[in-house]
């Protein structure tokens, strides 16, 4: 079974050094930048990560995206937007959900709202269900 990983789940798995699930995974091109932005936020705005640790995570994120199958949604903007409006979720979240729907994949997310909405369309699991 293939999994669609959102940015939050990717980052949480990387932080737990749990990389094996990515071998059966798909994500969106936007997830790379979402992951980098989350590291930037933890380093610059929240002060939770020192500069060296932040750069180490950037390297791990980059390596992870070499393993994951990455897809682009440039030509499905209208469909993604309609789903976002209908379900009152962000366009980003709608893109992950739409990819799971189109591919018959399991969505991996640690976002509670996305999980709640997505359960009406696809099977959903949290990143904590991997690498116990």
Structural overview:
There is one protein chain. The longest helix has 17 residues. A 5-stranded parallel sheet has the order 3-2-1-4-5, with helices on both faces. The chain has 132 residues and is α/β, with parallel strands linked by helices.
Short description:
The chain is an alpha/beta fold. It has one domain (3-129): Rossmann fold (3-Layer(aba) Sandwich), CATH 3.40.50.1010. Helix content is 56%, strand content 11%.
List keywords for this structure.
single chain, alpha/beta, Rossmann fold, globular
Helix count equals 6
Count of the domains = 1
**Second CATH tier, the architecture:** 3-Layer(aba) Sandwich
Please, what is the CATH homologous superfamily?
5'-nuclease
Outline type = globular
Radius of gyration: 14 Å
Low-confidence stretches: none
Number of DSSP E strands: 5
Q: Strand sequence of the main sheet, in spatial order?
A: 3-2-1-4-5
Report the order of strands and helices: EHEHHEHHEHE
Please state the average pLDDT score.
96
């Amino acid at each position: 079974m293939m999994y669609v990983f959102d940015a939050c789940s990717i980052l949480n798995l990387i932080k737990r050094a749990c990389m094996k699930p990515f071998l059966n995974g798909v994500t969106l091109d936007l997830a790379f930048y979402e992951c980098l932005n989350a590291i930037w936020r933890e380093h610059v705005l929240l002060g939770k990560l020192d500069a060296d640790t932040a750069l180490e995570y950037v390297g791990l994120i980059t390596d992870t995206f070499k393993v994951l199958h990455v897809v682009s949604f440039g030509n499905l903007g209208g469909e993604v937007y309609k789903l976002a409006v209908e379900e009152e979720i962000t366009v980003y979240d709608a893109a992950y959900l739409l990819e799971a729907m189109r591919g018959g994949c399991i969505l991996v997310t640690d976002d509670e709202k996305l999980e709640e909405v997505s359960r009406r369309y696809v099977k959903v699991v949290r990143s904590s269900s991997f690498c116990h």
